[in-house]
Amino acid sequence: MNLNLLEECREAKRIGIAGHVRPDGDCLGACLGLWQYLVKCLPAAETKVFLEKPADIFKDIKGFGEIDSDFPEEPAFDVFFVLDTSTDRLGGAEKYFRAAGKTINIDHHVSNPGGGQINVIRPEMGSTCELIFDLMDEGQLDKDMAMALYVGIIHDTGVFQYSNTSPETLEKGAKLIAFGFDFPNLILETFYQKTYIQAQVMGRALMESIRFLGGSCIVSAIDKKTMEFYNVGPKDLDGIVNQLRNIEGIDCAIFMYETGTMEYKVSMRSSEKVDVAEVAAYFGGGGHTKAAGCNMTGTFHDCVNNLSLHIEKALKKWEAEHDERDNSH
Ligand code: AMP
Ligand code: MN
Ligand code: MN
Q1: What's the Cα-to-Cα distance from 118 to each of 46, 77, 83, 87, 220, rounded to whole Å?
Q2: Residue 174 and residue 176: Cα distance in Å, rounded?
Q3: What is the spatial distance between Cα 286 and Cα 293, in angstroms, rounded to a whole number?
């Protein structure tokens, strides 16, 4: 890995860090891990993190209280980091990116074309936190940094379960837990634990789910009225799409929630048979081959029909390729 984070920031007086809108564990862990690292290694510089307000479950990560979610006017940053996203999903932090002297985009999304002056885009990495780990001087790591990076790794790998987990991911995980933070609780509280209301909404989404394409796909949606009834926001819906994907026989799971009139945020999870990053890209979204998302307009049925066309094509392609392979043996 040839980018030297500290060298790139050596002359900088003001450094900014941002990630994507609706920050997840990886985005947050990467931003706070890098923030801690730069504050520790370059104490003379002023380093700030800008993110939409993250979920409170992450409050124990060092630097959580330093996050600026108001996006005030700021003098231009000398160096500005964009983590875990392409440069078009920065929300309120986009203005800092545009004004910055030097921009550095560090990400692991296949769909990221690299919008910084310097780009480190590594789709083979399971998480941005894993990539940040590689870019850091290991000798500078401490317990708090380790905890931040560990959160990102477990979130994007489903606690080392998804196929984006490599032997190197586990080696890095081993080095991180050696710092001695309370990882069982961290995993429970940031990944598995749900409030009672969140569990109820998930239950409702599972109950109202519909299978299609011969039972190989499943979709469920939560409308605005239901979100208001339970008094839940988007952060409370995390995990529902994974639960749908965990159902036996499902190759593609879709979960959507209403963001406005005839507007939906769509999340997709798949087996190896469907490249959902490709499906999401048709609708202006992106992500990874097995986890992707997009925003769509139309009725629930319009959205499902449109997605279904692309998913069906992907499934047929996969089956044709596999028939061919079976016949050739
Ligand atoms: P989600 O379903 O929101 O958990 O997102 C799954 C993956 O797809 C994440 O890596 C997201 O960064 C990516 N993703 C979700 N929504 C979008 C979008 N509208 N545009 C680009 N990437 C997205
Ligand atoms: Mn993310
Ligand atoms: Mn990520």
Answers
A1: 21, 15, 12, 12, 40
A2: 5
A3: 6
pLDDT single digits (tens) 259-291: 999 999 999 999 999 999 999 999 999 999 999
- Which protein residue's CA is at the shortest distance from atom 2 of ligand 1? 267
| Measured distance between the N- and C-terminal CA atoms of the chain, rounded to whole angstroms | 40
DSSP result, 22-34: S--HHHHHHHHHH
Cα 295 to middle of ligand 1, angstroms: 9
Place of tokens 């990560």: 61
* Ligand 2 geometric centre to CA of 328 (Å): 40
Give φ, ψ of 15 to 5 degrees: -120, 135
E-only strand ranges, the chain: 14-18, 46-50, 79-83, 102-107, 118-121, 210-212, 217-222, 252-260, 263-270, 286-287, 291-297
User: Which amino acid does the sequence have at 66?
Assistant: E
The pTM assigned to this predicted structure is 0.92
- List strands edge to edge, sheet with 118-121: 46-50, 14-18, 79-83, 102-107, 118-121
Q: How do residues 214-240 score in pLDDT, each as one tens digit?
A: 999 999 999 999 999 999 999 999 999
